[in-house]
Design brief:
Helices cover 67% and strands 15% of the residues. It is an alpha/beta fold. It has 2 domains: 219 residues, P-loop containing nucleotide triphosphate hydrolases (Rossmann fold, 3-Layer(aba) Sandwich), CATH 3.40.50; 271 residues, Orthogonal Bundle (Helix Hairpins). The strands form 3 sheets. It has a 6-stranded antiparallel β-sheet with strand order 2-1-4-5-6-7.
Length: 674
C-alpha cells in the first residue's frame, strides 16, 4: 500500500487541508501539539474507521460535521476512500462512506467500506467497525504512546496483544471450536446409534414379501407370453389394414381427379385460344408501326447544337441587328446634315464658312454609313439562316421523340409476343399432360371396388384380436399392481434398513472423528501453536537485537526478549530493568521493539507488502549521535514510502520531503519546506 493524498475537513485542529504524499521519506515536523499526529490518526480513520477511537476526539470542536478522504494505491490500482463524521445532538455517526476506483464510485456503510478496504489490501482480519486493524497497527503504524503501553504491560496482557498482531488468536479459536465440535459429535453419534435398533424385524418382513413377489412374477410371465402372441397377430393385421387404407385413400384421391382434369383441359383450351388471339393482335400492331419508323428515320440532324443554344444565338443576333439599325439611322442622319452643310457652304450653328477639310469629314461619314449598312445586311442574313436552322432542329428533335415512342411501343409488342407465345406453349403442354392423366385415373376407379371389399373383411378380424388383447392386458395390470405394491413395500423396507445402516455407519464414523479430535488434533494444534510461537519469538528476538544494536552504540549493553516477549537489557552481563534506562535508551528500546514487531507482522500477515512504514515520534529523547543512526536504520528498512512524525529538526536531512506543521489560533496548517 502507498498513501498518495489526504484531505481533511474539520478534523481536530484542521479546518480544510490537503496533503500529498510522495514516495521516499516524508517528515512531518512541528512543535508538540501542532497537529502532526492528527495526520496519522486521519489516515487510519479514513482507511479503517473509528475503531476504538471516539468520534468526538476527531471532529473539530464546535463543528457539526467533518470528513476525511484518503487516496491510496494497492496492487497497481488507485483508490479513494472517503468518510464523513456527523454530529446529531449528543451522538455521532459516519455517513456518505464512498469508495472510488477504476470501476466507478460506490457508497457503503461504515462496516461495508472497512470490509472493502481490508479486501483490497488483502488483510485477513475481521471487519468489525469497532476494532482497529491489528495488521495496520503493528505492521505499518503504531502510535508512540501505544508502543510504550505495550512495553509496560503485564507479560500475560502483552502476550495476548501480540498474539492478535501475529494472527495466533486463530489457534485459540480453533481449539475452542474443536472442543465444541467434539461435544456435538458425541451427541450426534448417540442419536444415530438409537435409530438402528429394529433392523432384524424389518428384514423378516422383506423375506415374506420377496416370496410373494416370486410367485406373482411366474404368473405374469405366462400372461405376457400370451399377450405377445396376440399383439404380434394384431400388429400384422393392422399393418395390412394400413396398407389397404393407404391404397384406398390413394384410389379415392385419383377417382376424385376426373372432374378436375376435365375442367383443367377445358381451361387450357381457352388459354390456348386467348394466347393465339393476343399473338396475332401484337404482330399486326408491329406491322402498322414499322412504316412510320422508316419514314421518321430519314430525317437528318441539321446541327449538333441543341435548340437552347440556337435560341440563345438568335436572341443575340436580333439584339445585335437592333443595335446596328439604330446606329445606321444615327449615321445616316449625320451624313445628311453634313451633306447639306457642304452644299450651303456655311455652318448653320456658328455661321462660319466651311473649309476644304470638311468635305473629307462628309466622305468619311459616307463610308461609315456604307460599312454599317453592310453589317446590317450580313447580320440580317445570318439571323434568317439561324432561324431556318432552328426550325429544322425542332423538326428533327420531334422526329427523334416520336421514334423513341414508336421504338418503345415495338419493344412492348415484341415482349407481348414472347409472353403470349410462352403462355401458348405452356397451356398446350398442360392440356396434353391432363389428357394422359385422365386415362390413368379412369383405370384406377375399377381397382377401388376390390380394395373396399378386402378392407371390410379385415376390420372384423382386427376387432376380435383387440378384444383378446384387452382381456389379457386387464389380467396383467391387476397382477402388476400387486407385484409393484409388494416391490414398493420391499424397497421401502430396504431403504429403511439402508438409512439405519447409514446412521449406524455415521455413528461409527463420528466416534472415529471424536477420537481424532480429542486424541490427535487438539494436542497437535497446541504443539503447532507452541512451535510457531517459538519461531516467531526467535525471529523477533533477532530483529530486536539487530535494531537495538544499531541504535545503542555500547558494546557492554545487549538486548533480547524472553519467551513472553518482554524486552530485557543486560549491562556487562547483568540484567538491567528497562525503567532505569535513560530517556534515549528507552526510546531506542521502543523503536527497536516497534521495528521488530513491524517486520514480524509483515511476514506473518498475508497480503502485507513491505512498501509503507509510519513512525510516530521515533526519536523522542535521542542524542545527536543516536539521531545520526536513524539514517542508517531508514536505509536498512528499504521501504518505498516512509512517513515520519517528529519535532526533531535534525531529521530534516534524512527526509526527501519536509512538511512543516504549525498551529495558529487553534488551527493547524502545513507548509512544504523542501
Amino acid at each position: 500500500m502507498i498513501i498518495k493524498k489526504l484531505k481533511l475537513e474539520n478534523i481536530r485542529s484542521y479546518k480544510n487541508q490537503e496533503v500529498d504524499f510522495p514516495l521516499g521519506k516524508t517528515l512531518f515536523e512541528g512543535d508538540i501539539g501542532s497537529g502532526k499526529s492528527t495526520i496519522l490518526m486521519a489516515i487510519e480513520f479514513g482507511l479503517f474507521g473509528l475503531g476504538s477511537e471516539k468520534a468526538g476526539s476527531l471532529l473539530r470542536a464546535g463543528e457539526s460535521e467533518g470528513s476525511v478522504s484518503v487516496v491510496f494505491e494497492s496492487g497497481n490500482k488507485e483508490y479513494t476512500v472517503q468518510r464523513r463524521l456527523v454530529k446529531k445532538k449528543n451522538s455521532f455517526s459516519q455517513e456518505d462512506c464512498v469508495l472510488k476506483s477504476s470501476e466507478g464510485t460506490k457508497s457503503y456503510s461504515a462496516t461495508e467500506i472497512k470490509e472493502k478496504v481490508l479486501d483490497i489490501l488483502d488483510f485477513n482480519e475481521p471487519s468489525d467497525p469497532k476494532a482497529q486493524s491489528f495488521i495496520y497497527r503493528y505492521a505499518i503504524y503504531t502510535p508512540q504512546e501505544e508502543m510504550k503501553a505495550i512495553l509496560t504491560l503485564r507479560p500475560d496482557h502483552r502476550l495476548q496483544t501480540l498474539r492478535k498482531a501475529f494472527g495466533l488468536e486463530e489457534y485459540k479459536i480453533a481449539g475452542e471450536n474443536s472442543k465444541s465440535v467434539a461435544n456435538d459429535i458425541k451427541i450426534r453419534s448417540r442419536e444415530f446409534a438409537s435409530m438402528a435398533d429394529d433392523i432384524k424385524e424389518i428384514r423378516a418382513k422383506i423375506d415374506q414379501l420377496k416370496l410373494s413377489i416370486s410367485q406373482k412374477k411366474q404368473n405374469l410371465e405366462s400372461l405376457r407370453l400370451e399377450q405377445a402372441q396376440v399383439s404380434d397377430m394384431l400388429q400384422n393385421q393392422k399393418i395390412k389394414r394400413d396398407t389397404l387404407r393407404t391404397e384406398q385413400l390413394k384410389l379415392k384421391a385419383e377417382t376424385g381427379k376426373v372432374d378436375a382434369l376435365l375442367k383443367l383441359i377445358e381451361e387450357k383450351k381457352g388459354e390456348i385460344k386467348t394466347a393465339q388471339s393476343q399473338l396475332e393482335s401484337n404482330r399486326v400492331k408491329i406491322k402498322l408501326i414499322q412504316p412510320k419508323v422508316t419514314e421518321l428515320a430519314t430525317i437528318t440532324n441539321p446541327t449538333e447544337l441543341p435548340q437552347k443554344e440556337l435560341k440563345v444565338e438568335i436572341s443575340s443576333l436580333e439584339e445585335e441587328l437592333k443595335k446596328l439599325r439604330t446606329l445606321e439611322t444615327q449615321i445616316d442622319s449625320k451624313f445628311r446634315d453634313y451633306k447639306e452643310i457642304l452644299e450651303i457652304g456655311v455652318c448653320p450653328t456658328c455661321d462660319q464658312k466651311i473649309t476644304r477639310d470638311f468635305s473629307e469629314v462628309v466622305h468619311h461619314k459616307e463610308k461609315e454609313l456604307r460599312e454599317t449598312k453592310e453589317k446590317v445586311g450580313s447580320c440580317d442574313e445570318n439571323l434568317k439562316m439561324k432561324k431556318n436552322l432552328l426550325d429544322s432542329k425542332v423538326q428533327f428533335d420531334q422526329a427523334q421523340s416520336k421514334l423513341e415512342d414508336l421504338g418503345r411501343s415495338i419493344s412492348e409488342y415484341e415482349e407481348n409476343v414472347k409472353i403470349w407465345k410462352a403462355k401458348f406453349d405452356e397451356a398446350s403442354k398442360a392440356k396434353e399432360s391432363a389428357t394422359g392423366e385422365l386415362t390413368d385415373v379412369r383405370a384406377s376407379v375399377q381397382r377401388l371396388e376390390d380394395v373396399n371389399a378386402d378392407l371390410a373383411n379385415l376390420e372384423g378380424r382386427i376387432s376380435k384380436s383387440e378384444d383378446d388383447a384387452k382381456r389379457i392386458a386387464a389380467e396383467i395390470s391387476s397382477g402388476e399392481a400387486h407385484f409393484h405394491d409388494w416391490e414398493r413395500q420391499t424397497k421401502d423396507y430396504e431403504d429403511s434398513i439402508e438409512k439405519k445402516l447409514e446412521k449406524k455407519s455415521r455413528s461409527d464414523k463420528l466416534n472415529e472423528y471424536l477420537i481424532w479430535v480429542q486424541d490427535y488434533f487438539l494436542p497437535t494444534l497446541e504443539m503447532v501453536e507452541k512451535h510457531v510461537m517459538v519461531n516467531i519469538n526467535q525471529e523477533f528476538d533477532s530483529q530486536f537485537q539487530k535494531w537495538f544494536g544499531m541504535l545503542v552504540d555500547d558494546p557492554g549493553k545487549q538486548a533480547k526478549v524472553d519467551e513472553e516477549f518482554t524486552p530485557m537489557i543486560q549491562q556487562d552481563g547483568l540484567d538491567q530493568d528497562v525503567s532505569y534506562l535513560s530517556g534515549g535508551e528507552k526510546t531506542s528500546v521502543a523503536l527497536a521493539y516497534r521495528l521488530a514487531l513491524n517486520a514480524i507482522v509483515r511476514k506473518v500477515s498475508t497480503g502485507m507488502n513491505s512498501n509503507l512504514l509510519i513512525l510516530d515520534e521515533p526519536t523522542d529523547g535521542f542524542s545527536k549521535e543516536q539521531l545520526s543512526k536513524v539514517r542508517e536504520i531508514l536505509d536498512e528498512i528499504q521501504s518505498p514510502q516512509i512517513i515520519l512524525v517528529s519535532h526533531e529538526r535534525e531529521l530534516e536531512s534524512f527526509a526527501d520531503q519536509v512538511i512543516k506543521v504549525s498551529k495558529t489560533n487553534g488551527e493547524s496548517s502545513i507548509l512544504i519546506v523542501n
